[in-house]
Amino acid sequence: MHPHHAHEHAHAGLTGSLIADHETILTALDRLELRLSEMKRRGAVDVETFNKFLIFARSFIDKCHHGKEERCLFPCLERRGIPREGGPIGVMLYEHELGRKLVWELDELLRSYSEGKATPETIFSKCEEYIQLLRQHIAKENNVLFPAGESAAGREDVREVTECYEVIEGKEVGHEVHGELERLAKEL
């Protein structure tokens, strides 16, 4: 079975694919929080865990998931009258940028830590900030933006947006890589 058929049932409607992504992201965050608790108890940073998470954050959360939202879903929602400026799409885009900034800062802190210039606490704190942002962001999308999008979209929108998701998942990220990233989320 082709890896992308594994979630065929979850691809219903305009946002089914994104909700499935959210589940994968939340699994990764749960795993990361467990690791963080262990690290705090030991007072030491497990750099390998953070590096794996950064790969997941850049490739799955940002390139794949945010790519699908920014290039496929949000333009469709704007065409259907959901505003970007001063509206929910603008807030989501701002939070995507904030997430990218936090990932960059976490990466910089890990480099500093390996050179003896950053404390474990600063890394834990930055990581917790990112986790909190993502959890709140996902809740807003699942509970507010996605239901609004589902009501506003027509059948043709669903077809176009789903094809757009497929291009990002299949051609740009690659179904194999997408599957590997989903596995990584469970193995953090």
Can you offer a commentary on this structure?
The two termini are 25 Å apart. The chain has helices at 16-42, 47-79, 88-114, 120-152, 155-173, 175-187. The protein is mainly α. It has six helices and no strands.
Proportion of helical residues: over 70%
CATH topological fold name: Four Helix Bundle (Hemerythrin (Met), subunit A)
> Which shape, going by the Cα principal axes?
elongated
Proportion of strand residues = under 5%
Number of domains: 1
Write down the overall mean pLDDT.
Answer: 91
H/I helix tally? 6
Question: Which terms summarize this structure?
Answer:
Four Helix Bundle (Hemerythrin (Met), subunit A), single chain, disordered N terminus, 6 helices, mainly alpha, 188 residues, elongated
Topology:
Elements: H1 16-42, H2 47-79, H3 88-114, H4 120-152, H5 155-173, H6 175-187
Helix pairs in contact: 1-2, 1-4, 1-6, 2-3, 2-5, 2-6, 3-4, 5-6
Summarize the structure.
It is built from six helices and no strands. The protein has helices at residues 16-42, 47-79, 88-114, 120-152, 155-173, 175-187.
